[in-house]
Amino acid sequence: MLSSKRILLVIGGGIAAYKALDLIRRLRERGAAVVPVLTRAGEEFVTPLSVAALAGAKCHRDLFDLTDEAEMGHIELSRAADLVVVAPATADLLAKMAGGHANDLASTLLLATDKRVLVAPAMNVRMWLHRATQRNIATLRADDVRFVGPDEGDMACGEYGPGRMAEPLAIVAAIEAALGEGPLAGRHVIVTSGPTHEPVDPVRYIANRSSGAQGAALARALRDLGARVSFITGPAAVPAPGGVAVVRVETAAEMFDAVRAALPADAAVMAAAVADWRVVNASGAKLKKDGSGRAPVFEFAENPDILATVAGLSEGRPRLVVGFAAETDDVVAQATAKRLRKGCDWIVANDVRPATGIMGGTENAVTLVTEAGAEDWPRLPKDEVARRLAGRIAEALASGGAG
Ligand code: C5P
């Protein structure tokens, strides 16, 4: 909840400004007071009237207005808030912030504020990737400005890539986290996700069919409850969520190193489909047919079991360690045995027989196996499974146990 929190919301000039209207609604639903500031460019995308109507408050506009200054000067405006949020933050606004410009109301109050600033960038992918923008972002991060997004995906301009503004609920979660709210605020959760790729030679690898959808949904749900999430992902088919620390890896060994580097954590949720074996005699050069008809012979070695290792740590073990079990038969019996074998607290088991359509699909039917027994959940969208599991993780951490 954000009751009695006051958010100063600067709406920049980008097509994503329409999402700022939804953000205002979501913030007010949670009890926050929203003080909106609309830049001149922002007015090209949303009207001051709709902003004011949704905020239930005066929309401060980027005009030097004597009445405004008499009512509430820009200095006071920037200081009376608990948090300053810029959404959408355009490349231009970020450049102004990084350069310390103060040539309109938005940039002036951003320079004058003594409060934490959270920005939700939104721009064309090329503009986002441009060195100038990346330089400005590095400067702003060093100045302790927080970022949420941008997300990767289709853009209004028809291109694809990073640059889409984070979704309003992700921004709400980042706001809660910045204000120290949310049941998982102050908690660090590691999530592994996606498949791993084990190279055979420089161009070929052994992989599996995991899309990474359930792991990404989990990272999002945990983030939305205020957790700081380290998202360690193999080469997944779905984009990584915004607002989490993403570490991209390829092999199981790299994932293991990344997990160790991310510790300590309050909880670890291992949703990745990690390869059990790697090819030890992988070739440094591309393998070629030599005309003899002989096929290459690969020698395998077992990969480290990340879940079992983390669950078995005598020092620095996360309080709650959750594993996944994709099974094709005897799901509950296998998962129950796996929980004990791996030494983890919970196992989220699912039936991945091709007929279920779960692997690579949008729905999941899971059984949660804990010390208390097995709980069948109904077939639900992966996002909903993630929300329920994140809720249970928050409860378990709050109660001090692994329940
Ligand atoms: O043994 P199995 O692969 O079925 O166990 C699945 C669980 O173990 C998943 O949570 C997966 O992320 C984890 N795992 C792991 N490291 C491995 C193999 C599996 O963390 N090398």
Topology:
Elements lengths: L5 E6 L5 H13 L3 E6 L9 H8 L4 E2 L4 H6 L2 H6 L3 E7 L1 H9 L5 H8 L4 E5 L3 H5 L1 H12 L3 E2 L3 E4 L5 E5 L3 H11 L9 E6 L4 E4 L2 E3 L6 H12 L3 E6 L11 E4 L3 H11 L4 E4 L6 E3 L20 E3 L3 H6 L8 E8 L3 H12 L3 E6 L11 E2 L1 E5 L2 E4 L3 E2 H18 L4
Parallel strand pairs: 1-2, 1-4, 2-3, 4-5, 5-6, 9-12, 9-14, 12-13, 14-17, 17-18
Antiparallel strand pairs: 7-8, 10-11, 15-16, 18-20, 19-22, 20-21
Bound molecules: cytidine-5'-monophosphate.
Cytidine-5'-monophosphate binds next to helix 12 and strand 17.
Residue stretches low in confidence (pLDDT < 50, at least 5 long) are none
Proportion of residues in helical segments: 25-40%
- Give the C-alpha Rg: 24 Å
Strand content: 15-25%
Distance between the termini: 25 Å
Kindly identify the CATH topology of the largest domain: Rossmann fold
| Biggest beta-sheet profile | 8 strands, mixed
Q: What is the mean predicted local confidence, pLDDT?
A: 92
User: Taking strands numbered 1, 2, ... along the chain, how are they ordered across the largest sheet?
Assistant: 13-12-9-14-17-18-20-21
Number of helical regions: 14
Write a concise keyword list for the protein shown above.
14 helices; globular; Rossmann fold; 403 residues; eight-stranded mixed sheet; alpha/beta; 34% helix; binds cytidine-5'-monophosphate; single chain
Report what the structure shows.
- With 403 residues, the protein is an alpha/beta fold.
- It folds into two domains: 6-178, 3-Layer(aba) Sandwich (Rossmann fold), CATH 3.40.50.1950; 188-399, 3-Layer(aba) Sandwich (Rossmann fold), CATH 3.40.50.10300.
- It has helices spanning 17-29, 48-55, 66-71, 74-79, 91-99, 105-112, 125-129, 131-142, 168-178, 213-224, 252-262, 306-311, 331-342, 382-399, and strands spanning 6-11, 33-38, 60-61, 83-89, 117-121, 146-147, 151-154, 160-164, 188-193, 198-201, 204-206, 228-233, 245-248, 267-270, 277-279, 300-302, 320-327, 346-351, 363-364, 366-370, 373-376, 380-381.
- The strands form six sheets. It has an eight-stranded mixed β-sheet with strand order 13-12-9-14-17-18-20-21, sandwiched between helices. A six-stranded parallel β-sheet has the order 3-2-1-4-5-6, sandwiched between helices.
- Helix 1 links the parallel strand 1 (6-11) and strand 2 (33-38).
- Helix 1 packs parallel to helix 2 (48-55).
- The longest helix is centred in the last third of the chain and has 18 residues, at 382-399.
- It is globular and about 85 Å long.
- The site of cytidine-5'-monophosphate has 13 residues, from helix 12 and strand 17.
